[in-house]
Amino acid sequence: RVNIDDSCNAYWNGNSINFFREGNCSNTAFVDVITHEYGHGIDHVLGGIVDGGYSEGFGDAMAILITRQPCLGRDFQGPGKCLRNAEEIHPWPPNNPEVHEVGKIYAGFTWELVKELQKIYSEDKAYETAKQLILAAAAGNPSDIPDAVKLSFLADDDDNDLSNGTPHYEQLEIAAKSRNIPYPQREGEGPKERCCA
Fold first, then answer.
1. How many Å apart are CA 82 and CA 72, to the nearest integer?
2. Distance from the CA of 62 to the CA of which of 51, 82, 83, 186 falls in 20 to 30 A?
3. What is the dihedral of CA 137, 131, 39, 49, to 10 degrees?
4. pLDDT tens for residues 94-121?
């Protein structure tokens, strides 16, 4: 539904995605917002929205994977402005429990994962690999952001043994560390390797 008589928001209602007309903000029916709200729909269908912070982050992750850039809600509140920017560092655990603030942590993890994958793959393959890992985690209906990160490691595992790593363990690890998110340890690793400064 588009051009709803309100401004500066959009929402998933359990059945449809809904966008507001231009007012104090731009018309919200554009690609970043559309893919974010569609992300809520995916989360809903894959087991229900269990955690609001994860769902907001997953919506932003979908926007990152479709638009291939970290500025989310481009021009939403004026030309050149990002509503949220996945390049910003927001660490786990969240300081602010508001769901959009919590979601920034998972969006940052997703953006960092893409950047790390681009060091070993072409841009297309990096985004495709990130998409597979993020959507596989979503299919597991994560209970929160650390659970979603763990599920990405599990999805990447090719021998049913996380203790020896996974094909993209290094890239997932760097992405998790970049936002201080707990993640599964390889054999011989301990708490010191778990988090970043």
1. 6
2. 186
3. 0
4. 999 999 999 999 999 999 999 999 999 9
